[in-house]
Amino acid sequence: MAATHTRQPTTRQNWASGLTVFAAVMLMIGGVLAIFRGIMGIAKDDVFVATPEYVFRFDTTGWGWLHLALGIVAVLVSFGLLQNAMWARIVGVGIAAFILIANFLSLPYYPVWSVVMIAITGFVIWALCVGRRDDASARYESDRYERTPHHV
Asked: Cβ of 59: how many Cβ atoms within 10 Å?
């Protein structure tokens, strides 16, 4: 008797695709918050209180433009990640690294939020790096498995 079995995605595939979606959502949230943070820095220089005599000193208006640009790129890349595009995964790691560095350098202006964003973007980088297979290759293997006759 011949029977065909549909192959379910493995736990590792589900885990990797779940991490990618979660990273995309977190990158989108981080990007939107960076946009708001950039707007705050551009609109008013006195929104952020800087620690005196800190090693890094920046003009908050310039810092606001940097956060605004990084936030816009992060939101655009997160849409590519939701489409499971490989270019978005690569650019996502890069933009998350830049956001992480920018948040490290903005520690004197907004320390608690900078630490939170460093943790979030660190997780985004990790999640984008561990996902090895995209849905297209998983679908191809699943279709190939279904086409092959299996005898019981």
From this structure: 10
- Measured CA to CA, the distance from residue 114 to residue 101 in angstroms comes to 10
7-39 pLDDT, tens per residue?
555 555 554 567 888 899 999 998 998 899 889
Residue 77's pLDDT band, with cuts at 50, 70 and 90, is very high
CA atoms 16, 22, 28, 34: torsion sign: negative
Instruction: Give which of 31, 41, 27 is closest to 69, Cα–Cα.
Output: 31
C-alpha distances in angstroms, 38 versus 30, 34, 63, 79, 100? 12, 6, 7, 20, 15
Q: Which pTM was predicted?
A: 0.69
